[in-house]
Amino acid sequence: MCNCRVETEARLMKAIPEQLPDGHRNLRVSLTGYALMMGEGGAQSRQVMPIAITYEAPNRAGAMKDKKQSMSMMANYCMFCGEKYEKTTDPQ
Ligand SMILES: [Zn+2]
């Protein structure tokens, strides 16, 4: 498993202060869009793509109502280095 998440966050921690105002403090940088999954080698941080779903559906009275749903799709490869993620077991 690669260390892209940790390494990228460390790079951002060095680069971002240059863009911040003097006197800033308590800087924290965290890449979002990851889910913790159980793999063969233990827990791994794996990238997920959020999916926004919107549609209209009729309510009981037959009037159309806006509906929203969200899901996410798991990546098979690291977007930074291209390494294939190891197989994970679905939490059940
Ligand atoms: Zn990677």
Can you tag this structure with a few keywords?
binds zinc ion; 92 residues; mainly beta; 1 helix
Layout of SSEs?
Elements: H1 4-15, E1 34-39, E2 42-58, E3 64-74, E4 88-89
Antiparallel strand pairs: 1-2, 1-4, 2-3
The chain binds zinc ion.
Domain count: the total is 1
The number of strands is 4
**C-alpha Rg, in Å?**
19 Å
> Approximately how much beta-strand content do the residues carry?
35-45%
Description of the molecule:
With 92 residues, the protein is mainly beta. It has one domain (4-89). 13% of the residues lie in helices and 39% in strands. The two termini are 23 Å apart. The model has no long low-confidence stretch (mean pLDDT 92). Zinc ion is lined by residues 2, 4, 78, 80-81, 83. Residues 2, 4, 78, 80-81, 83 line the site of zinc ion (ZN).
Q: What's the quick description here?
A:
It is built from 1 helix and 4 strands; from the N terminus they run H-E-E-E-E. By secondary structure, the chain is mainly β.
